[in-house]
Amino acid sequence: MTGEHSSKQYDMDLETIRSKVLLMGGLVESQFQDAVSAFRSGNVAQADQIIKADENVNNLEVSLDDACSHLIVKRQPAANDLRTVMATIKVITDLERVGDESTKIARAAKSISERGVTAINHYETIRVMAASAGNMLHDALDAFARLDGKQAIKLIAQDEAVDHEFRSIMRALITFMMEDPRTISGALDTLWVAKAIERIGDHAKNIAEYVIYIVEGKDIRHTDYAVSRLDERTAS
């Protein structure tokens, strides 16, 4: 009975942590959407709010890391349970970094607005890429919430599209700067935003990889596992 009680308490503790991780995920997802919105509109007040809101994300990271550490010490999980906790800690780190990248976007939006830079259409340059990365982040959080390995595999393959879009944006911005030096300042700001969005796609991919680690027990980082699995399903 003692073992059963301990197991139930562990499940309750882990579920509490998972719920808070999803809360943190919701915060950073909104932070990213708001940052892109501020970049589109040039709303300095909104950009300031996003920058300030990052404190909440940072505080959640510290709180959740502490909760995970206490869970390991108190419950001493083994095998699958320990794998779940360790992967959750990594998800928390990636979410905090998404918040950092969103803050970078907000700072760029504020900088462009305050300097009155209008030589290029900044938002249109990153619009498609931002939508793709936003969808990846949303799907990654959904896969984590449902521990859906199949969705995680599909999501990982999408990261190449975001990387390709970043390379296209970089080439276009370099062309702008070469043809018209007046675009240099705004193009550089937009390039930093595009890089932040590309990194958000990377963090979404990382979360998907941790979902597969939890579900299948396989560490697929730096491998072509997801691509090979998709190829197998296509062939069948």
Automatic annotation (TrEMBL):
Every PhoU domain range: 22-108, 126-211
Localization terms from the record: Cytoplasm
Cellular component per GO, a single term: cytoplasm
UniProt keywords, alphabetically: Cytoplasm, Phosphate transport, Transport
Keyword Aminoacyl-tRNA synthetase (UniProt): no
Family annotation (Pfam families): PhoU
Any one GO BP annotation for this protein: negative regulation of phosphate metabolic process
InterPro entries listed in its UniProt record: PhoU, PhoU-like_sf, PhoU_dom
Family: Belongs to the PhoU family.
Chain's role: Plays a role in the regulation of phosphate uptake.
Subunit field text: Homodimer.
Protein known as: Phosphate-specific transport system accessory protein PhoU
Origin species: Oxalicibacterium solurbis
